[in-house]
TrEMBL record:
It comes from Halovulum marinum. Residues 87-238 form the AAA+ ATPase domain. This is AAA family ATPase. It holds the Pfam family AAA_22. PANTHER family: GENERAL SECRETION PATHWAY PROTEIN A-RELATED (PTHR35894), PHOSPHORIBULOKINASE _ URIDINE KINASE FAMILY (PTHR35894:SF1). One of its GO terms (molecular function) is ATP hydrolysis activity.
Length: 334
């Protein structure tokens, strides 16, 4: 049985017991309830029916069903698998915001063997005692707030030994790990030293933004870096990969026609730098604009218009005009 506990977006209760942000069973993550799905149905049908789609193709929620295996994502996932299979003490995966790191982790969780217990920890913070509380709660263990560090560490070590004796391996995954302080990272290195005979009792997977890699290059973390035996930086997608990514998500959502033109895909790559989350935002708006104008094709002028209208926070790179006249608005201006 794969036990996966996600702690980090909830809050500790007074008892110190875990209130999980999301708990899953053997495979996959908890799905939205039927009530929530029903509430979203009207919004989802804004353009899905118009384009003959079964669902929105460019949502921002990480979804393994939409996992697109670009060359970069294949390499990153291979490193994750390699780290798990070889019992690597520490695995590090980095990438820009929205590069697809969380989706890869969710895919990994869906495909782990049944003899692995996973604690998924998001945005951990605090001193070393608080870190142990986060870890214990992520593993479903009681972590009294007034317990000493020695007591918490003893509970943690006893739990690892119990899992080991039961034939289960333990993996701790830290998401947004770039936020971990240097002394916290050094504490995690000490976790990786816990062993039984020649077997290490816990593996660590750190997932974060590029700042994590910069932090690990610090001279003060040399010993930590030496324990990293599997790592990969997830770079943005190429122009060709963006084209394939858009087509893949449209086909997965039931598309039967090619909606985005070649020049539109090139403009999307130019505006987003190949970052999946930005691609999703831009494509979602583009489909809404096309629906509003009563057309079934998204071309470069339309992408230029979306970027001009929606680039309030500077997320998209400015686009050079194609020189063609801007489109006239149809039924409404999104």
């Amino acid at each position: 049985m794969v036990h996966i506990c996600d702690w980090g977006r909830g809050r500790r209760g007074g008892s110190g017991r875990s209130r999980h942000a999301g708990v899953v069973g053997r495979v996959g993550f908890e799905k939205s309830g039927s009530g929530q799905t029903a509430r979203k149905a009207g919004r989802l049908d804004i353009y899905t029916e118009y384009f003959g789609l079964t669902r929105r193709p460019f949502t921002l929620q990480p979804d393994p069903d939409f996992l697109f295996w670009s060359g970069q994502h294949k390499k990153a996932y291979a490193m994750l698998e390699y780290g798990v299979m070889t019992n690597a003490p520490i695995t590090v995966i980095t990438g820009e915001i929205g590069a697809g790191k969380t989706t890869l982790i969710r895919h990994l969780l869906r495909n782990l063997e049944d003899d692995i217990t996973v604690g998924l920890i998001s945005n951990a913070h605090g001193d070393r005692g608080e870190l142990l509380q986060w870890v214990l709660m992520a593993l479903g263990q009681h972590a009294p707030e007034d317990a000493s560090y020695v007591s918490l560490f003893s509970r943690f070590q006893a739990h690892l030994i119990e899992e080991y004796n039961a034939g289960r391996r333990t993996i701790l995954i830290f998401d947004e790990a770039q936020n971990l302080a240097e002394n916290t990272l050094e504490e995690l290195r000490m976790f990786s030293n816990i062993n039984a005979d020649e077997d290490e009792l816990v593996q660590l997977i750190l997932v974060g933004q590029p700042e994590l890699r910069e932090k690990l290059a610090s001279p003060r973390l040399v010993q930590f870096a030496q324990r990293v035996s599997s790592d990969f930086h997830l770079s943005p997608m190429s122009k060709l990969a963006v084209r394939e990514y858009i087509d893949f998500r449209m086909l997965t959502s039931g598309a039967t026609r090619n909606v985005f033109t070649e020049d539109a895909a090139a403009a999307i790559h130019e505006a987003t730098g190949g970052v999946p989350r930005l691609i999703n935002q831009l494509c979602d708006y583009a489909l809404l604009y096309a629906f509003g104008e009563g057309v079934y094709r998204v071309d470069r002028p339309m992408i230029e218009q979306v970027v001009e209208d929606r680039n309030v926070n500077g997320s998209f790179a400015p686009l050079k005009s194609s020189g063609r006249a801007p489109r006239q608005r149809g039924r409404f201006r999104p």
